[in-house]
Amino acid sequence: MSGWSGGQITDRALCVLAPNAGPMTLDGTNTWVLREPGSEQAIVVDPGPDDESHLQAVLAAVAAVGARVAVTLLTHHHLDHAGGAVRFAELTGAPVRALDPALRLGDDEGLREGDAVDVAGLLLRVVETPGHTRDSLSFVLVADDALLTGDTVLGRGTTVIAHPDGVLGPYLDSIAKLRELVEEGLVDRILPGHGPVIDQPGPVLDYYLEHRHERLDQVRAALEAGATTAREVVEVVYQDVDQTLWGAAELSVQAQLDHLRTP
Prior knowledge:
The protein is α/β, with parallel strands linked by helices and about 260 residues long. It has 7 helices and 11 strands.
């Protein structure tokens, strides 16, 4: 582990780390508390798992700065990010907004590409970034030139694109879209859903694209060598990966196979 423990990252962004560290969640899920300095209203992005101690820790962090939760936003539906959303809404009385209608709570509308969320002067712009999941969103924290990515980009390592919800083609497009935001000078820091903050996002996003294309080349080579199933590809391509992660790798390979077979 990197020793990442969250905390105050910018004047507007505070990370409360969930106690769910593991091979797939790294140090734990990053719950982001966003607040314009001096404001009595806050936005929470990804309340995290349905863990009462964590949800209370998030509430305590909001209360410590004299604020209340005005709205909760979800980057995607995975339980380590959204599992606590219903309970958190009960605790705060704040609506929950997401791309997927099934995750929305309260009267507020859903979230779509280009939407703006403005709470007491704190402005977030919504970027649809499908691929890790079909409902994945990222949020540009405009005043800080920062990007909250959920699981689309991690603070350490790379993201699993797990078949069938994960789809590689849209994921590659999403990473390219985020790279454009960096090139346009709109993003110079990534606040991920797991792991430490990324202070040089350009090279990391370039690596993400290179890594995916290298994996695709490795999968092609495994198929040419006689592999016929995702499991057989994993046994060739992921020999250096702990076998406890081969199940996730197999889902990732299946997504790659689907991508290679798409006209």
